[in-house]
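Hi support team,

I'm filing this because I wasn't sure whether my run with S-adenosylmethionine finished correctly. The job status page said complete, but I'd like someone to confirm that the output block is well-formed before I use it downstream. Pasting the exact inputs I used:
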Amino acid sequence: MSVDVQRHRTAMVRHTLSQPMSLAVRHRLVHAGVTVFDYGCGHGDDLRALIAAGVDANGWDPHFAADQERREADVVNIGFVLNVIENPFERMDALAAAWSLARRVLIVSVMVVGAVPVDGLKPFGDGYLTARGTFQKYFQQTELKALLSQVVDVEPVALAPGIFALFRSPEEEQDFLLERRRGRRASTSAYRSNRPVRSKPTRPNLEERIAPVIDAMAAFATQRGRMPHPDEVPSELHDLLVRERVSFARALDTTRGGGISDDLLAQAEAQCREDLLVHQALNILNRSRSAARLGPSMVRDIRHHFGSQQQFAEQALEYLHGLADQSRTVNAALRAAESGLGAIDEDGRLIIDNGRVLELDGILRCYIGCATYLSGEIDQEHIVRLDPLRRRVTLFALSGKRTPFPETNTSVTIDLKRQDVSVRNDRRVLVRKADVFGMAARSRQRSREVERRVREGIDEAKVLVRL
Ligand SMILES: C[S@@+](CC[C@H](N)C(=O)[O-])C[C@H]1O[C@@H](n2cnc3c(N)ncnc32)[C@H](O)[C@@H]1O
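And here is everything the job wrote out:
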């Protein structure tokens, strides 16, 4: 049967960045100063938004921008293109062509199974034909990963269900993974409070003259738990030091004296050691091929925090053995809930706000890290349910987070035993928001929750109730 598939009719008009582009911006893969190429750009709305934000962006599309040159760029995006191509060989060609243009990273996104109902659609090849004459293939996460590994010889990194990044250099992939596992850090302005302040300086003192250098050094120390090496400070700041006739060593001393306190540096150091252990444990678990290739900054981090590569590897292995011990994960989940970090439900699962995952102890962060390695994150506010007995992690996207009883429509479950990811339409209401978000013991929220439990006869251990 010959069918004239209308591929271009799948392109939609966008008023906000597409999910893969906004993830690339959030993860700092895309910013001003980076070149971007959008392969299969549709109407070009992502490109217009990027250009308006100062990014050097171009694109090509066989239907909407066929006259544009297909050119190399630091970041190439092939967004929701593979899923509209009905011929599996042509999908591979498009993927290989996009990869050949990517100097640093290729971002691939497709539609995933479960995201959209397929009732009433006509099966065609390995996907469906729609009433508008378009083709849609819905991928399983593992299926997409297998396709990417088949065409491109690098390990795909999941950014979200149906979205992967492929890094050209293993060093850059490692830096990206570590940064992502670290999550956000506090701003450096908080670390300058103990600087002496003069009411009426007659002449700017040293700290004022080299303030941008102190800020940058304190920010670096907060991020990596150590002071920077000269190579790790931008050249314009070296120029400022030369103009002010201040040596690098003196700038370091001044930062230690006033830019960041010893206590905060020690705190950042402990946090970084744990970040690196979680990172390495996940590298081992996920058999990351890029783990052996580290950039110079990470080599310095390891030397500073662990003494040597060997000691680092030994400590990470020890950490992993702890992870395999079920009673340790169960106890860590109970301890987290006792300390106000989330709620334990009727089946002994820990439910926690995604924004607080970094406060969990390393063993649970490792657990969740393994899950998000397979699924990527979901691009919305969500809560995480960790099931240490069944070895599953489920992410629930929340709507109405400010209301007393937020709801969720979709869940993504990652089964760590089967290494599988499934997306479901899953309507539930959060009935213990106060515990999940660590709210005060006598809050109005808690009394509302008790009232609702009594009124509807809800078991008091339940956290998410089906609608
Ligand atoms: C669903 S749209 C996605 C457009 C855009 N990337 C976005 O996210 O808004 C799919 C696009 O893929 C384009 N396309 C179809 N076959 C392609 C191929 N072999 N190579 C590149 N793009 C293709 C279509 O013309 C269409 O614009």
